[in-house]
Amino acid sequence: MTFHKEGYTSLALTILFLLVLNAAIQFYLPQAHTLKWIIYILSFMFLAVIVQFFRSPFFDISTDETTVLCPADGKVVVIEEADETEYLKDRRIQLSVFMSPVNVHVNRNPIAGVVSYFKYHKGKYLVAWHPKSSTENERTTVVVQNSEGVSVLFRQIAGALARRIVWYVKEGDIVEQGQQFGFIKFGSRVDVFLPLGSKILVNIGDVVKGGRTVLAELPSALTAVTATEGHATIKPVSIESLTASAHVAEQIAEEEPTIIENEAHQGELPLVIDHPKTEEPKKTVKKAAPKKPAAAKQKGKKE
């Protein structure tokens, strides 16, 4: 268990405030023993809350290409189909996790892959469980695409108390599953948009742990495209497949194709055969000489 770096400033300000408060009580009200003890107890409790809120536990993360890890500690409050209109623009399964002030507020990548989209939105500070908080509150939107071409969108959403969202990713980053991608201060929620056909492994009301609870199992890329019912997206080509294709293309380019001209059909395109096993010699067609007319022979004799 460590103290998260995002809490250094808050911890320093809290300690400074409590020291000044307790020193003032001790100096101006030295005889108010009951009041001093109340202030001492409240100061200790407040400091404990700050330390507990910014804690960052250590644990082993089990990674799997086919699963989706929970991005934050909290409680599952939404599992439903919804239209994702910002980037994916298709039908998805929305799964939302509400974080209370007593939860760990570290946010972790639900899958591994490449960050294909990131955007920060300024907005309102509605309570985190409000239906419009996903689209109107201050938030960030992150889309990570795995090696199979399956994309998962997730959002950090600020709430009534959480007025600051911190993120550590940008477009083009290669991220690992369970790695920290951000932090939300003082409670809010995280939405995850999964492809249709995903197998959901949690229920509404379940208490989940970021980086440890498995929320769902992802479908294959083909199943995910089929399940979108007409909102199919083009599966991107991986770097490995491009490299393999280029290698095959180079091998093919080394062997020039043989072109066979069809003399009987000069107006048609030539027939091209790639990589012929044997090359047969062309047959020479002999043409007969044209016959001279009879009149021309008789004229030659008279002369």
From TrEMBL:
Predominant location category: membrane
Positions of the UniProt region annotated as Disordered: 263-303
Residues found modified as Pyruvic acid (Ser): S188
InterPro entries to which the protein is assigned, alphabetical: PS_Dcarbxylase (IPR003817), PSD-A (IPR033175)
Keyword Transcription among UniProt keywords: no
Organism domain of life: Bacteria
Membrane topology: Peripheral membrane protein
Pathway assigned to this chain's UniProt record: Phospholipid metabolism; phosphatidylethanolamine biosynthesis; phosphatidylethanolamine from CDP-diacylglycerol: step 2/2
Catalytic EC class: lyase
Changes after translation: Is synthesized initially as an inactive proenzyme. Formation of the active enzyme involves a self-maturation process in which the active site pyruvoyl group is generated from an internal serine residue via an autocatalytic post-translational modification. Two non-identical subunits are generated from the proenzyme in this reaction, and the pyruvate is formed at the N-terminus of the alpha chain, which is derived from the carboxyl end of the proenzyme.
List of catalytic residues: S188 (schiff-base intermediate with substrate)
UniProt KW keywords: Cell membrane, Decarboxylase, Lipid biosynthesis, Lipid metabolism, Lyase, Membrane, Phospholipid biosynthesis, Phospholipid metabolism, Pyruvate, Transmembrane, Transmembrane helix, Zymogen
Cofactor info, note text: Binds 1 pyruvoyl group covalently per subunit.
One Pfam family cited in the UniProt record for this chain: PS_Dcarbxylase
Subunit structure: Heterodimer of a large membrane-associated beta subunit and a small pyruvoyl-containing alpha subunit.
Family: Belongs to the phosphatidylserine decarboxylase family. PSD-A subfamily.
PANTHER family: ARCHAETIDYLSERINE DECARBOXYLASE PROENZYME-RELATED
NCBIfam families assigned to the protein according to its UniProt record, in alphabetical order: PRK05305.1-2, PRK05305.2-5
Function: Catalyzes the formation of phosphatidylethanolamine (PtdEtn) from phosphatidylserine (PtdSer).
The protein, known as: Phosphatidylserine decarboxylase proenzyme
Gene behind the chain: psd
